[in-house]
């Protein structure tokens, strides 16, 4: 959590507003031949907070079509989530949403 410098742990309003007005970016998940389906689903649940049902749909889309839209969010969140997916061994990129 970002501190406002007052020591009370409240979020810095300017930081919250900045991320709320970011242009949308897509986190794209790619199929790979390394990770098991249930691991990919667990990663999507952990990183994005997706339901198991949604995470399964994203995983299946990537598996059958080579890539899938995992989330659309502000750039800073998209970059952070992409890094988290990569740290778990998944293949992902960030693209400007169209």
**Distance between the first and last residues' Cα:** 30 Å
CATH topology heading = Ribosomal Protein L30, Chain: A
Number of strands: 3
Helix content: 40-55%
Unreliable segments (pLDDT under 50, ≥5 consecutive)? 1-17
Could you give the order of strands across the largest sheet? 2-1-3
Major sheet details: 3 strands, antiparallel
Provide the CATH top-level class.
Alpha Beta
What would the principal axes of the Cα set say about the shape? Answer: globular
Average residue pLDDT: 86
SSE order in H/E notation? HEHHEHE
Radius of gyration: 15 Å
Q: DSSP helix count?
A: 4
CATH homologous superfamily annotation: Ribosomal protein L7/L12, C-terminal domain/Adaptor protein ClpS
> How big a fraction of the residues is strand?
15-25%
Q: What features would you describe in this structure?
A:
- By secondary structure, this protein is α+β, with helices and mostly antiparallel strands.
- It has a single domain (24-96), classed as Ribosomal Protein L30, Chain: A.
- It is 48% helix and 21% strand.
- The chain contains 4 helices and 3 strands; from the N terminus they run H-E-H-H-E-H-E.
- It has helices at 13-20, 37-48, 52-65, 75-87, and strands at residues 24-30, 67-74, 91-96.
- The protein has a 3-stranded antiparallel β-sheet.
Offer a concise description of the structure.
With 98 residues, the protein is an alpha+beta fold.
Looking at this protein, list some descriptive labels.
3 strands; 98 residues; 21% strand; Ribosomal Protein L30, Chain: A; disordered N terminus; alpha+beta
